[in-house]
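Retry 2 of 3 after timeout on previous attempt. Resubmitting structure tokens to design endpoint.
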């Protein structure tokens, strides 16, 4: 049984849709790989950082799915996790402090700064209509070699080498529409988000007895600890490479038609 199968078994029975549980598991793995693992395409080197938004009306199960991500990351004691309530300045400070150094195969020293963020409310992480904050997230998502910032109020220059952010957060459809100004939909921020939607609440018996799943949690945590030491280029499985190529050459169907997703469609 692979890690995702174990995770789905562990979270089975919580009041959260299966698709939310799946993407929370994927986000957990992506965060654990930080900026130590990458894949190559003809266009660029890609890292596994994700910006995932679980989108649903109230009481569908966003928070329950996201809570499992935080618990597993914290349990490993291996990763740097962002505070629950941050400003742009405090997020950058936390990213600056999330330094990691590893010896790559061949003896080269690799330095990076990887910060993991799990927030049940996207609006707590990103203030409404804060285009400057969204621009910073845009820039860091692309895994630049450095992020530089001049704090005039503190007469301080910040330079972060190989920054990376992994984000999973929850939001409601109406709130998302009011949170992101029209400019945010065209500036490329939404093209960097994986929006996962569900409107179907999962009903769970109030009195159903649950068997202990501590052994599964321990197994998941131990495997994440192992992944925290993995480094290097990941290779494409032939079937996966063929399927992705088929989808890309076929026009990336289905193509979203909503006018606000015009730039998302072009970038995805």
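Retry 2 succeeded. Sequence:
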């Amino acid at each position: 049984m692979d890690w995702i199968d174990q995770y789905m078994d562990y979270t089975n029975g919580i009041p959260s849709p299966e698709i939310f549980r799946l993407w929370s598991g994927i986000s957990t793995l992506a965060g654990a790989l930080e900026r130590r693992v990458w894949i190559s395409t003809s266009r660029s080197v890609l890292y596994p950082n994700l910006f995932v938004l679980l989108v649903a009306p109230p009481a569908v199960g966003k928070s329950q799915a996201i809570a499992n991500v935080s618990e597993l990351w914290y349990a490993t004691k291996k990763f740097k996790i962002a505070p629950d309530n941050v400003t742009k300045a405090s997020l950058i400070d936390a990213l600056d402090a999330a330094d990691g150094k590893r010896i790559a195969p061949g003896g080269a020293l690799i330095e990076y700064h990887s910060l993991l963020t799990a927030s049940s409310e996207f609006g707590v992480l990103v203030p409404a209509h804060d285009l400057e904050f969204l621009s910073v997230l845009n820039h860091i998502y692309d895994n630049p070699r450095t992020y530089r910032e001049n704090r005039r109020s503190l007469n301080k220059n910040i330079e972060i080498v190989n920054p990376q952010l992994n984000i999973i957060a929850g939001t409601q459809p109406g709130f998302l529409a009011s949170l992101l100004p029209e400019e945010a939909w065209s500036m490329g921020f939404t093209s960097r988000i994986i929006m996962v939607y569900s409107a179907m609440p999962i009903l769970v018996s109030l009195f159903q007895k649950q068997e202990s799943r501590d052994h599964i949690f321990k197994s998941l945590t131990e495997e994440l600890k192992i992944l925290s030491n993995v480094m290097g280029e990941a290779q494409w499985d032939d079937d996966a490479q063929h399927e992705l190529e088929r989808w890309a050459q076929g026009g990336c169907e289905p193509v979203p038609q909503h006018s606000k997703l015009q730039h998302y469609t072009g970038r995805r």
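Attempt log closed. The radius of gyration is 19 Å.
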